[in-house]
């Protein structure tokens, strides 16, 4: 189904008909291998534990998502560019059914041939740049991606130790007319090092930055307010994660259970299963447990926040200006 028709249907279902369970965004972990070992990362995302689907498996998963409500398909990992077939897979997904994103730590972004082939296979490049990816220097040469026609959204992880460096990063991204999304580090229960920033401090920093660099900072006001616990009065689930073999942990990969496999079943069929309905009921009963999910979808909890976010992204997509 055409992605713009999907987007309109998603809007009607979630915003007008108030369906809390309609995934519009999919984080597709196409590999669990990575060239890095970031402190805040869940080891199963880089040590190969979750495996790596074959080219055919990944294509089947993409096919089983085409008629689903998923509008934005984000290729992630691990490091997705460690896959030799990544360009082929991106091309396969980029047929008008999805807005396609590639999230990378920059592993292949020095490869001129790779970059010149990438632009017509994705809509946005998500480039993770911060102290924990050891690549902050890349911000100094970020504007070079314009020559390849790539629209770059920098993702940067905010921890309790680097909040004071955020403004410099935002300024450098603004120079290139790109965007930046700040994601707070999450401390997993067994994390040895605690990095998550104090939510109030992060709120103060982000709200100041949002006032000064409104269109460059991609975090919406809904997201920023959610840091202070100003969650909407109901929990919604608009994003899913998909493992490299097609397994679908639901409602998310932190608290979820595997409810199906997308290499064998369509997402629309999985979402109708009694198990999924039971997990949705439990989610609504235990809303407080799902702080991460609240934050993940906080930009889409009110028509106003959504309109602000979509307006920025549409302007960026068609005019190339942040
Ligand atoms: S680059 Fe991403 S996937 Fe790799 S270790 Fe770091 S956070 Fe994890």
TrEMBL record:
Gene3D superfamilies in UniProt: Aldolase class I
Domain of life: Archaea
Keyword Glycosyltransferase: no
Key words of the record: 4Fe-4S, Iron, Iron-sulfur, Metal-binding, S-adenosyl-L-methionine
Pfam families: Radical_SAM
Residues covered by the Radical SAM core domain: 20-217
Molecular function via GO: 4 iron, 4 sulfur cluster binding; catalytic activity; metal ion binding
SUPFAM superfamilies for the chain: Radical SAM enzymes
Co-factor(s): [4Fe-4S] cluster
This protein's record includes keyword Manganese: no
Protein name as annotated: Heme biosynthesis protein
Species: Acidianus manzaensis
């Amino acid at each position: 189904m055409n992605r713009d028709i999907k987007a309109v249907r998603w809007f009607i279902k979630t915003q007008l008909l108030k369906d809390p369970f309609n995934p519009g965004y999919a984080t597709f972990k196409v590999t669990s291998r990575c060239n890095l070992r970031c402190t805040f990362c869940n080891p199963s995302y880089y040590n190969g534990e979750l495996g790596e689907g074959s080219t055919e498996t990944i294509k089947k998963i993409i096919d089983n998502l085409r008629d689903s409500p998923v509008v934005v398909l984000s290729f992630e990992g691990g490091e997705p560019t460690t896959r030799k077939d990544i360009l082929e897979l991106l091309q396969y997904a980029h047929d008008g059914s999805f807005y396609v994103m590639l999230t990378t730590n920059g592993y292949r972004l020095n490869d001129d041939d790779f970059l010149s082939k990438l632009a017509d296979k994705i809509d946005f490049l998500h480039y993770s740049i911060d102290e924990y990816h050891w690549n902050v220097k890349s911000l100094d040469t970020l504007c070079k991606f314009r020559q390849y026609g790539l629209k770059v959204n920098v993702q940067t992880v905010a921890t309790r130790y680097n909040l004071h460096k955020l403004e410099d990063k935002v300024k450098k991204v603004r120079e290139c007319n790109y965007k930046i999304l700040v994601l707070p580090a999450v401390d997993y229960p067994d994390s040895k090092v605690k990095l998550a920033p104090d939510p109030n401090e992060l709120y103060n920093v982000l709200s100041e930055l949002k006032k000064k660099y409104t269109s460059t900072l991609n975090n919406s006001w809904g997201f920023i307010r959610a840091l202070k616990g100003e969650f909407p009065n109901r929990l919604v689930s608009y994003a899913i994660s998909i493992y490299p073999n097609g397994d679908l942990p639901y409602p998310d990969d932190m608290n979820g259970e595997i409810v199906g496999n997308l290499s064998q079943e369509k997402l629309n069929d999985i979402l109708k299963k009694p198990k999924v309905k039971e997990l949705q009921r439990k989610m609504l009963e235990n809303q407080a447990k799902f702080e991460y999910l609240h934050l993940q979808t906080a930009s889409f909890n009110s028509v106003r926040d959504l309109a602000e976010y979509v307006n920025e992204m549409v302007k960026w997509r068609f005019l190339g200006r942040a």
